[in-house]
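so i finally got all the pieces together for this one. its two components total, 224 residues if u count the protein bits. some of the lines might not be protein, just check the labels. i wanna see the whole assembly predicted at once instead of chain by chain like last time, that was a mess tbh
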Amino acid sequence: KQEVTQIPAALSVPEGENLVLNCSFTDSAIYNLQWFRQDPGKGLTSLLLIQSSQREQTSGRLNASLDKSSGRSTLYIAASQPGDSATYLCAVGSDSWGKLQFGAGTQVVVTP
Amino acid sequence: DTAVSQTPKYLVTQMGNDKSIKCEQNLGHDTMYWYKQDSKKFLKIMFSYNNKELIINETVPNRFSPKSPDKAHLNLHINSLELGDSAVYFCASSQVVAGELFFGEGSRLTVL
């Protein structure tokens, strides 16, 4: 059974610093991997989707890498801003049916 | 113009009651999902429909019954509510099966 772990559970950084968020998974036979952010009391917002054949995806200040062999994905957020404060969730899709296994998330606080 | 909308946003009810949560998406997506986020914030998939056909049915009590009257709607009916059903229920959609997920804002169910 796929297990997804996100460490640390919480992170606080000063504004302007780069953020590095980690996601590890136990079964390297994945279909895809998605990163989301969740604001308090809100739904999840998709940030990046990486297919199993891809090594990375980029969108603006966000870059996500995928290393299936080591069971890891890393989300980089450049030049963090207070508006980046949220919980970031990693979700691994292990098949083509769309069933995602979520990590518990990393709660990020960016201080002005 | 909300892409994935759920109603109601909050629901407080007594044990033993029956309740429904409705979900609608205006993105033209083919696939819709129900996820449950428990008190520990873990997100778990419950059901998925593709073109009104059930494709994912996780180990969920049969008190939970999804219904998809058309591609744009996916409802969740819960019979004989129990205390452990208290959670936030999220609806999501994707253009294709296992595609990028778009979430609604969630429906917080509290069973007393």
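Chain A has a mean pLDDT of 95.
Chain A touches chain B at residues 31-32, 34, 36, 41-46, 49, 87, 89, 91, 93, 95-100, 102, 104-105 (CB under 8 Å).
anyway lmk what u think
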